[in-house]
Write a structure and sequence with these properties.
Elements lengths: L1 E3 L31 E2 L2 E2 L10 E3 L3 E3 L17 E13 L9 E2 L2 E2 L1 E8 L5 E2 L2 E3 L6 H13 L9 H10 L3 E8 L9 E12 L16 E8 L10 H11 L5
Parallel strand pairs: 6-13
Antiparallel strand pairs: 1-12, 2-3, 4-5, 6-9, 6-11, 7-8, 9-10, 9-14, 12-13
Length: 246
């Protein structure tokens, strides 16, 4: 697993932000797919490593047909890069001992309930143009799980976030099984796990839904979870990484 170190840039916004949602979307003929240009990553995680381009410079989803064509409701043609954040700690009893099931430690993670479909999910969202995955994950976690923007968070909160997000591990870079995917526009996500082994830092966080999440809470990782898109797969991979109960 690779490591992702998040510095004070966690709460620093990029110069360009959400350009695909405010009328600045480039014409499809000018887009350089299979490349990273001006901070926009249009490469795919597919094992073949390249996106096939159809007539008219239209990208074809390498993961298969969806029954829908065009860009749909997504902001970009081709890959729409997302960042999902799995913040975990060990589930503890009142005496602070770590709980176990079937001989394995039990993990819990921060889950948010989406406004649009009421499903529980991992905090995350699309990577803005010119933004790093680290910035996107920090921004989305603060907005969705803490109910505040980077401008609203106080010094204590900033320190807690920096402590928690100081040593992340990339657990997956996958195609997201998202209902918004089409044959020509789709979501791929980079999932990073930030684990608080002692629980001291995470205990100081006050979870509160915000932005497009109406609730946030700690949830035990187990095989019976019903989560949005590919999020159940992501939390399973996190559990496997920690050799934890699932």
């Amino acid at each position: 697993m690779s490591h992702l170190v998040i510095t004070t840039q966690l709460i620093s916004r990029p110069v360009l932000s959400r350009s695909n949602l405010n009328g600045l979307t480039p014409t499809i003929s000018s887009i350089a797919f299979n490349d990273i240009v001006d901070g926009v990553n249009r490469t795919t995680c597919h094992e073949e490593g390249a996106i096939s381009i159809l007539k008219g410079n239209i990208p074809q989803n390498p993961f298969g047909r969806t029954g829908m064509t065009g860009r749909g409701v997504l902001g970009k043609w081709g890959v729409n890069q997302a960042a999902d954040t799995v913040v975990t700690r060990w589930k503890r009893a009142r005496d602070n001992t770590i709980l176990e099931r079937n001989g394995k430690k039990v993990l819990e993670f921060v889950a948010v309930q989406r406004v649009d479909n009421n499903m529980w999910a991992i905090p995350g969202g699309f990577v803005d143009d010119g933004e790093t995955y680290a910035q996107a994950q920090g921004r989305e976690f603060m907005e969705e799980a803490l109910g505040m923007s980077e401008e609203e968070i106080d010094e204590k909160g900033v320190n807690a976030i920096h402590d928690l997000f100081s040593n992340g591990k990339v657990v997956a870079n996958i195609y997201s099984e998202d209902p918004r995917n089409t044959d020509n526009a789709w979501i791929e996500t980079t999932c990073v796990n930030f684990h608080d082994d002692t629980g001291d830092t995470s205990n100081s966080l006050v979870l509160k839904g915000g932005d497009d999440a109406k609730h946030a809470k700690w949830m035990v990782i187990n095989s019976q979870l019903n989560l949005f898109a590919s999020h159940k797969k992501l939390v399973r991979l996190v559990a496997e990484y920690h050799h934890a109960y699932y």
